[in-house]
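Q: Sequence in, structure out?
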Amino acid sequence: DLARDLKTAQESLAAAGAVRLAFGELQNLLWQVDTFGFHLAELEIRQHSTVHEGALTELRAGGRRSELTREVLDTMRVVASLQDRFGPDSCRRYVVSFTRGARDVAAVYELARATSMGKIPVLDVIPLFETLDDLAHATQVMDDVLRLEPVRRRLVANDRQVEVMLGYSDSAKEAGPLSATLALHDAQAALTTWARKNRVRLTLFHGRGGALGRGGGPANRAVRAQAPGSLAGRFKVTEQGEVIFARYGNRAIARRHLEQVTSAVLETSAPRGSARDPARDFRALAAMIDRPARDAYRALVDAPGFEKWFLDVSPIEELGRLRIASRPSRRSGGRRLEDLRAIPWVFAWSQMRLNLPGWYGMGSGLSAGPLDDLRRAYAEWPLFNAMLDNAEMSLAKTDRRIAERYLALGERSDLTAKVLGEYDLTKEWVLAVTGHRRLLEDRRVLSWAIELRNPYVDALSHLQLRALRAMRNSRTSRADLARAERVFQLTVNGIAAGLQNTG
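A: Exactly. Output:
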């Protein structure tokens, strides 16, 4: 209605001879209405599938409700209240983390019905596939999702629009960067084919983090590396943490970034006739390097005593006590590696100057493939090219000498040797495949920036190591402990700023 009224005003102004006014500021307002409607930003809810499962179990039992269940029910009531006041588009998307099956989507609709006071809120429930197994079975799950009655009603109302979220962080934490990258690409290609078959308008929501170990890196190159047909003019991605300030803190940089992403989306979405996915030409190579890379990564994280060793060599526990995160560092308060969220996992490795989640396992994977085939893939396959360039950047931000001092805190020479050996192997093969004589040889500005910042970051790393030893020493006095904690917090901020990398 607003757009129609503005159009009427525009036509009236133009007829009266005020052409500049009609097609100047008024036209800009019309474009904004067409783009954003009444809501510049829509709120979205996200909750773990097991929380919904527990809430439904308690509701059906009719007994005492836990704090988590009360929170879920209160959230549903807030969604209904927002929609009643501002309209359905103000808050209708509900992301379900760790979706395993259609039952996880159905649970949200059941909870919405249970809390409604006669009026059920409008919901578009978005499954989030995060593990390699869930990514591999995404299309089967979506087949079942389309059979749900609430979903069928929404398809009629929203012109058959469906949104699916893909998790970059936890898939990389589970299988390493190489295997996760390949699995995510395969899932995108499969979902694109599935959407075409079911005649739905699919939007893939990329849950990428700012750090390279969580799917970060240059966004425009990531767009061009997507599976053909997976964009279709629609690209949705998370922007969080330091990425928001780095990309949008300066008006000129923000405009440049948005132009780069927009041009990449338009270019990738343009009709190309029978667009062929370059991945098809390298399927055999991908299979050849995938398993060794994943095996190397799992051999590290599944090694006996790894969890305790990680606590000793990294500042993960100390980071968890700082008030710098929006969520606890661990899910459900567990102590296993699986309970640790991906953000603190990546952040801890970056503070150690190792950036392990961004490259570990790649050396073992690349060394299993023919060098000539790897070089051809680097030249012709955008996904492989972007993956190796991101790994090269992670390696360039790694300081082997300082990392050794952190690793020495764990007193496990076998695990230290495993990590450093994989680092050396990965660096050797990344340079061999890219044809570079040194890391970031073709990105001189970035290379110089890292070299310029490193001496200052090195000093902070040494101070952090000293603070960690003091904080972990039971004989440290209360006054010295307070000073050590303050030094630690300052070095965390300084190292993150110097490396341009958090979680």
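The radius of gyration is 25 Å.
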